[in-house]
Amino acid sequence: MRTRINKEMLESMGKNPNNWKGIFYVNRKDPRLIVPKQNPAMGWTFNFASPYAYITLIGIILIAIASKYF
């Protein structure tokens, strides 16, 4: 059975410097695909521990390439 992660725990995960590898957020325990950056004024980023982040990025790249040719 999967436990629910509350909002405070998610915020603490995002602010933990151990979950950041330079500009990349990597945390397998965080279920979110998109997370706020360390400085929320800078926007959002992907959780690169999630395989869905790579699938989403590949999809965006393929759409950009396809739009050039069609």
Question: In total, how many beta strands?
Answer: 4
User: What is the chain-wise order of helices and strands?
Assistant: HEEEEH
What is the percent of helical residues?
A: 40-55%
What structural category do the secondary elements indicate?
Answer: alpha+beta
- Trace the largest sheet across and list its strands: 1-2
| First-residue to last-residue Cα separation | 46 Å
Q: Beta-strand level of the residues, as a percent range?
A: 5-15%
What number is the mean pLDDT? 92
Unreliable parts: none
Summed up, the helix count is 2
Task: Please indicate the count of domains.
Answer: 1
Shape: elongated
Q: Tell me about the biggest sheet?
A: 2 strands, antiparallel
Determine Rg (CA atoms, Å). 14 Å
Key structural traits:
alpha+beta, two-stranded antiparallel ribbon, two-stranded antiparallel sheet, 2 helices, 4 strands, 14% strand, elongated, DUF5808 domain-containing protein, DUF5808, transmembrane helix, membrane
Detail the topology: elements first, then pairings.
Elements: H1 7-15, E1 20-21, E2 24-25, E3 34-36, E4 44-46, H2 51-69
Antiparallel strand pairs: 1-2, 3-4
Structural write-up:
InterPro entries: DUF5808 (IPR043831). Pfam families: DUF5808. Keywords: Membrane, Transmembrane, Transmembrane helix. The chain crosses the membrane at residues 52-69. The structure is a single chain. This protein has 70 residues and is an alpha+beta fold. The protein has one domain (7-69). Helices cover 40% and strands 14% of the residues. The chain has helices at residues 7-15, 51-69; strands at 20-21, 24-25, 34-36, 44-46. A hairpin with a 7-residue loop joins strand 3 (34-36) and strand 4 (44-46). The longest helix is centred in the last third of the chain and has 19 residues, at 51-69. It is elongated, with a radius of gyration of 14 Å.
